[in-house]
Amino acid sequence: MRPLGIFGGTFDPIHFGHLRTAFELQQSLGLAEVRFLPTGDPPHRSEPLADANLRLAMVRAAVADQRGFTVDDREVRRAGVSYSVETMDALREEFADRSLCLLLGMDAFLGLPGWHRWQELFDLVHVIVAHRPGWKAPTKGPLGELLVDRGTGSVQELRQAPAGRLYIQAVTQLEISSTELRQLIEAGHDPRYLVPDSVREIIRESRCYARSHD
Ligand code: ATP
Description:
- This protein has a six-stranded parallel β-sheet with strand order 3-2-1-4-5-6.
- The chain has one domain (4-175): HUPs (Rossmann fold).
- The N and C termini lie far apart (47 Å).
- It has helices at residues 16-29, 52-63, 74-77, 84-94, 106-110, 121-124, 141-150, 155-160, 178-186, 197-206, and strands at 4-9, 33-38, 69-71, 100-105, 126-130, 166-169.
- Strand 1 (4-9), helix 1 (16-29) and strand 2 (33-38) form a beta-alpha-beta unit.
- The chain is α/β, with parallel strands linked by helices.
- The chain binds adenosine-5'-triphosphate.
């Protein structure tokens, strides 16, 4: 069976940098599905500005017309902090022998050593890292060592083993970030062509980032 991709994020809001990256990884790795998994109460950063249900609604709207893109709302539904290792553990229980691929941008990967029980992630999933503008792959330290120990350039290996490998993928570099989007909207500018129209509409109607752009 083809691997399952899991794309976690705050998605505050979801943008074309997320969607294009997920799409290219879906294609290059032959993922049967990419599950977008919005965080509820994120442990690694300050509180998001749009509440979890609104972020979830934006993700649902954004992925609605792409086959194989799905939404997993377990972290939003769960009260309290969700650690990735616990979420991956739950997914592993559901998908016994399936190849599971956790998709991360390079910036998120560089923060991995700060994650709760991060080394255990490799017992549960493969980690797939997409390049992101402004961030370089590590060559030293724990992540440099991890690349030597677990790195692979073989998609075949990702399909054959259920977990345990680290794979870095070049994707089209789109310099879009949620933080910059929120700042742009707050300054009264229009996020058009940076987010799907359906997401832009939700932002406009809910006024979740304070100022509307019309
Ligand atoms: P912020 O700017 O507030 O940090 P973000 O744009 O990074 O937000 P997140 O929801 O934190 O959005 O990101 C979810 C995942 O998507 C992370 O793994 C992140 O590295 C990745 N990602 C986000 N934007 C891009 C992009 N433009 N290109 C590639 N990966 C991205």
